[in-house]
Amino acid sequence: MKCSSDCSKKIMHCFEETIQYILDNNPEFFLTNVGKKTKKHVLELGDKLAKKGELIYLDDSIFGDFSCFVLSILSSKLKKELEKEYNKDIKKVADGIDNLLDKKLDLIFAKYEGHIESRSDLLGDYGPSPLFYIMADRFSYLLDDNPDKVLSEKSVIVRRQINKVIKLVGGAFLSSKQVFEDRDKLVPSEIDDKSYLVATDLPKDQPVIFAPNHGFKDDALCSVLAADRHAYFLFGSLPVFYNTMDGFIAWINGVLLINRKNQNSRKSIPGKCEKAHDLGLSLIYYPEGVWNKSPNLLVLNLWPGIVRIAKKCGYGVVPMIHYKKELHLLEKDDSIHTIVDNMINFSNTPEKEAIQQLRDKMATWVYLMMEKYCTSTDKGGKTNHFVSRDDLISGYSDANDYWEDMVRKRVAPVRKFYDSEIETSAEYLTKPDQEQLEIEMEKGLIKTSRKRFQRGI
Fold it and tell me: Domain check: are 238 and 302 in the same one?
């Protein structure tokens, strides 16, 4: 949304005043590294900042938020100094800053009363990042249950233009090159009837729900780049949203937040999606709910919410599949392979059948891409489809050791803002799955328990 001239000037003034205050008090802070020549300077600056007190930092303005952002970075630097060598003066300043930041957090979380169950809903397993003091204070409205407070025609129009820029430059921010697959070339020649796999253009005059699989950090940006139109995220990883630049970029693109731990938040999503459809807005909705960390399933069981919302709002559903070969395979290929399938209309399809149809479609494309790209070459130069078990577990004690290490590597980029409660319990479990899980728990065959969330979507 374009700021007015006065608003732009006010924000710029706040930023300039904050930076100028720091430079006036200690220009060397920005020119040298903490821990080398500036321990004394950091201490002096921290003391002055802390003495500024509540008048600035607890002010409910972008200036106050940005000031706390700076203080949080400073606090982190001071704590690193204390890890190297204890100093009671540094400890005093660090404690003073932390006390001020704690007061700011109290004010921020007061805005989320009734929308979160605990602070961990927004923070995950760790404390706030510096960015949290800006994101959480500015964007509490995104968890409001009223669709009219979250979505407006004007904001959609503006973000639609911003989305064009994201599509233009987004590929440069991917960890690997994204390749859009020719579906016809993936289908085995022995399949006679390929009519259901033939690519067709998506209807331009109808908003759709893109349904990607979910398994690695970049699949969100890959989904934005693969969609042929602007689409809002349905975003349920709140710690990632409020603590990282990924969340800020999602907000710029357009996002509908859901707190999966809060019943009212879950119940508000169908109404928000209906409002989005009325505005002609497409969605990106991950039906698996969490990253696929299963060693066995090509696609996890899907939550039924995507079909219910499609039926209720009149959306068509477009399967979108991303595949990335693991980094430790013999023939390293880090490319992200993407397929966008035909739109499926579930309006007259029973829910259970629709979910199965969507999952089968997604899993088929994952399998076909695995068959094409997950290969190894033997000593004679012969290409073998699918990497052998021996290739995979080479260097590991067993298959479980290999898989746990692979999952750790995959999760590492987002581990700092991980919500273990969600990630270990929000996978959709059918009743037979739940019963089998309980049997395995009783026998001590698995280490962690997973409760099924009774979510409304």
Answer: yes
